[in-house]
Design brief:
Elements: E1 5-18, E2 21-34, E3 38-42, H1 49-56, E4 64-69, E5 72-73, H2 79-89, E6 90-93, H3 105-114, H4 121-134, H5 150-162, E7 168-172, H6 180-197, E8 200-204, H7 208-212, E9 216-221, E10 224-226
Parallel strand pairs: 3-8, 3-9, 6-7, 7-8
Antiparallel strand pairs: 1-2, 1-4, 4-5, 9-10
Helix pairs in contact: 3-4, 3-5, 4-5, 5-6
The chain binds adenosine-5'-diphosphate (ADP) and magnesium ion.
Amino acid sequence: MNSNVVLEAKDIYKSFTDGKSTVDVIKGLSLQVHQGEFVSIVGSSGSGKSTLLHILGGLDRPSQGIVNLNGQRFDSLGEAERGFLRNQNLGFVYQFHHLLPEFTALENVAMPLMLRKDAEFKKVKERAEYLLNRVGLSHRLTHKPGELSGGERQRVALARALVTQPKLMLADEPTGNLDRKTAMTIFELLRDLRHELNMAMLIVTHDEQLAKSADKVLHMQDGVWVTEKT
Ligand SMILES: Nc1ncnc2c1ncn2[C@@H]1O[C@H](COP(=O)(O)OP(=O)(O)O)[C@@H](O)[C@H]1O
Ligand SMILES: [Mg+2]
């Protein structure tokens, strides 16, 4: 694999079977994301974007095909090793923030680092505070998710995804649940942080402005790539 490829997927298929019926959701998709590159995936609801993103992030297994993250194949690893590979290389952002309600913003952001065996509490706290400050939330460190606005929660989720300095951020409609103005702030933060941290981003989005600012836009329809219709 070319050394500046962060993520490579080859000929991915995914089917779901429940009892009698089988649904073929991903039907032979390949892609590469290079260091520092921003790739967006657009496609109508139900086309298989979230399913693909889960497979690319090693959260689900493909029915067929290979996913290689930073030189390691997910299918060659056990569950713990997969978790380690994700923690070392990936940051995840979802449409709904998925923050832990009983923890503060600071604790939520620190979590991915605290999960590491060699975590040093003081350094982790400093790093989490830095990221929260960076997304403009230094005045909300001890607030719990329920005490934050939608945009603030998404900024906390962004800080959490970036606290480990991932090589690649995977985001599933990160602005999908926000009003236009708030979406713009998230959009600008993503752009600035990508350059600052020199990370690659793979973002599933309906947000045309966000999609178009990518280095590469992939259009998905019924589990395959299509060329954009005009
Ligand atoms: N766990 C599952 N079991 C069965 N079908 C699923 C499962 N997950 C997703 N699907 C189906 O796969 C299709 C694509 O879903 P999804 O990846 O969520 O699409 P998108 O994110 O593009 O809206 C949908 O028809 C959905 O019902
Ligand atoms: Mg989806």
